[in-house]
Design goal:
188 residues; 5 helices; rod-shaped; cell membrane; coiled coil; ion transport; transport
């Protein structure tokens, strides 16, 4: 392979005369004209610099900006996904806590209702027993009153009957004695 510097080291008049060897032969074959070749190289360098500055530079800047925006978007997406996962976990924890609280409240309500129901049932039983006791006491008092009235009436009837049968007026002691004897026979 021929070094590039050796290519440039060949003098133009040597190529024209045919003394350049292999390099000279190549230059003659491709008809390289040095002033024209140098101007083309300078033109190429100018176009390359202009393209780099006004075409490739802005395009590369735009691509870098897009690349950075895409990276930022992906980073934001990861943060959003992480926040969403945290939010879902927080929501699940809040729902679990609310369910536990609701279960506890329901159990407390059931216990309270059972206690209230038991209390009301005991209260109703106590009231019923109180009513029964009062009714029994009232019935007993009424029976005693009726029995007393019956004894009194029975004693009056026996005394009246005895007075009519005997035809005499009985004294208080006689009436009491007859009443006591009649009541003792009836009670036995």
């Amino acid at each position: 392979m021929i070094p590039f510097l050796d290519l440039l080291a060949v003098e133009p008049h040597a190529v024209a005369e045919g003394d350049g060897g292999v390099v000279g032969e190549i230059l003659r074959t491709f008809k390289v004209d040095w002033p024209f070749f140098i101007s083309q190289c300078v033109s190429f360098l100018i176009v390359a610099v202009l393209l780099k500055k006004f075409a490739f530079g802005p395009i590369q800047n735009m691509l870098e900006q897009r690349k950075s925006r895409i990276a930022e978007g992906e980073e934001k997406l990861k943060r959003i996904e992480q926040q969403l996962a945290e939010s879902e976990a927080t929501t699940a924890a809040a729902i679990a806590k609310a369910n536990e609280e609701a279960t506890r409240l329901i159990q407390e309500a059931r216990d309270s209702a059972a206690a209230l129901s038991e209390s009301k049932a005991q209260e109703a039983v106590a009231q019923a027993q109180s009513i029964l006791a009062k009714a029994e006491a009232a019935a007993k008092a009424e029976r005693e009153q009726i029995a007393a009235e019956l004894k009194k009436e029975f004693g009056r009837l026996v005394t009246a009957t005895t007075a009519q049968v005997t035809g005499k007026v009985l004294s208080d002691d006689d009436m009491r004695r007859i009443n006591d004897e009649a009541l003792a026979k009836v009670e036995a």
